C-alpha cells in the first residue's frame, strides 16, 4: 500500500509560523499576496525571499543582498543569460504571433531539438508548460494503445491540468487521484540493494498493470520523471528503468519520460535522463529549462506513437511554439552547447558530490548523498541504521541555509531530501559557499 504525503506543502510559508525576525515589509507583502492571489499558492521558507534581480547562479533581494541559487533549473543556463535575453528582445522587436503561420524559427529549432534525441523519436509538438506536455502525452498514449490507465510514482508531480493533477500524488491528500491512475513506490537504491530494486520495481509495475486491466481501465502507459525528482532524486543505479520499461512494452503500453527536471544536459552524462537507463522513451515531455525561463514546453515522440492521436484530433496551442519562445529555446540550446554546459554539469556536479561525501563523514545526520551532474539529493536521517527520514531537520536546514543566503528546498515522500539543483552556471568557485554553509548549519543544529 502506497502512502500519500504532501511534498508540495513541505517548506511552504505559513503566516502563523513565520520565522522570528521576518520583516514587517515581508509580512505585509505575504498578506497582500494571499489577499490578491487566494490561498492556493505556496511560498518557500518561513522567511520568504523577495527577489528583484538575477545573474548567472546568483539572485539579489530587495535589500540588495546576494544569494546563491541552488534550486533553480528553470533558468538552466543562468539567470538573465545575455545571449538568451538578446534573442528574446530581438525576436520580440521583429515578430510575435500565434502559431498558425509559417515561420522558420519553429522548424529550425524542431530539427535542432530532435537532433538531441535518439533517432526513433522524430516528431515534436510545442506548448507552454510541462503540464500541457504531460496532459497531451496522456492523450497520445491512450490513442496509441487503446488503454486508459496511467502508472506514476508514489510522490510524482506531473502538472496542473485535470488529467495531470489527478496523476500527481505529490499534491497531497486533498487532490483526488484518477480512477485510471495507479501508484508505484519509486526505486530507492538507498533503502534496498541494487539488484533487488531493479527486479522489485519491474514487478511493481507489472502488478499495477494487472490491477488496471482487471479494473477494466486497460493500460496506456507509465509516466515517470526519469530521475524521480519529487520522490527524492533517485539517479541510480544507472539502467534501473530498463527492466520496468520492458514490462511496459510487453504489456502493450508506452513509456512517457517526463524530462521537465532532468532534461537538457543537467545530469551531466546524457542530454536526456532516460538515456542514462539505456532505454528509448516512446514519448518525451520537456519544459522548465527549455527556454531559460520563457514559457515553452514540448512533446517529442516516435511518429507511429503520435499518429493515432495526431491523425484524428487537431492540435492548436495559441502560444505554444510562438516565435519569441522559440527564439529563447534556440538561444538556450545554443548556449548549452557553446558553453559546454553538460560537461560542466558532470565535472562540477562530481566535485560537489565529493565535497558532500566528505561532509557526510563529519555529520551523522547525512544518510545518503547521490546525484548525476548538478542534480543532487542529500538525504537527512534520524539514524543511519534505521534510515528514518528526518523531515524536521531538513526543514530547519533549508531555513538556516536561506539565512546564509543559500537557496534550496526538499523533496521525497519523507520531505527529508535536500534537492540541490542549481542553474548550470553554478561554478566550481560556488562550491565552497554551498558546502561551507551546509557544514556550518549542520554544526549549529548539532546534526
Ligand atoms: N513534470 C515535472 C517532473 C515537474 O517537476 C513539473 C513542475 N514542477 C511539471 C511536470 C509541470 O510543469 P509546469 O509547472 O511547467 O506545468
How would you portray this structure in words?
By secondary structure, the chain is α/β, with parallel strands linked by helices. The protein folds into two domains: 177 residues, Alpha-Beta Complex (Aspartate Aminotransferase, domain 1), CATH 3.90.1150; 256 residues, Aspartate Aminotransferase, domain 2 (3-Layer(aba) Sandwich). The strands form three sheets. A seven-stranded mixed β-sheet has the order 4-10-9-8-7-5-6, sandwiched between helices. A four-stranded mixed β-sheet has the order 1-2-3-13. Strands 11-12-15-14 form a four-stranded antiparallel β-sheet, covered by helices on one side. Helix 3 runs parallel beside helix 9 and helix 6 packs parallel to helix 7. It is globular. It starts with 23 loop residues before the first helix and ends with a helix. The mean pLDDT is 95. Bound molecules: 4'-deoxy-4'-aminopyridoxal-5'-phosphate. 4'-deoxy-4'-aminopyridoxal-5'-phosphate (PMP) binds next to helix 4.
Record field, number of beta strands: 15
Question: Runs with pLDDT <50, length 5+?
Answer: none
**Could you say what the CATH architecture of the largest domain is?**
3-Layer(aba) Sandwich
Structural class: alpha/beta
Q: Considering DSSP H and I runs of 4 or more, what fraction of the residues is helical?
A: 25-40%
How much of the polypeptide forms β-strand, as a percent range? 15-25%
Arithmetic mean pLDDT: 95
What summary fits the major beta sheet?
Answer: 7 strands, mixed
Shape: globular
Number of helices: 12
Question: Which small compounds were modeled alongside the protein?
Answer: 4'-deoxy-4'-aminopyridoxal-5'-phosphate
| Helix/strand order | HEEEHHEHEHEHEHEEEHHHEEHEEEH
Name the CATH superfamily classification of the largest domain: Type I PLP-dependent aspartate aminotransferase-like (Major domain)
Radius of gyration: 21 Å
- The number of domains is 2
CATH topology heading of the largest domain = Aspartate Aminotransferase, domain 2
**N/C terminus separation:** 32 Å
- Return the CATH class of the largest domain: Alpha Beta
Largest sheet: spatial strand order: 4-10-9-8-7-5-6
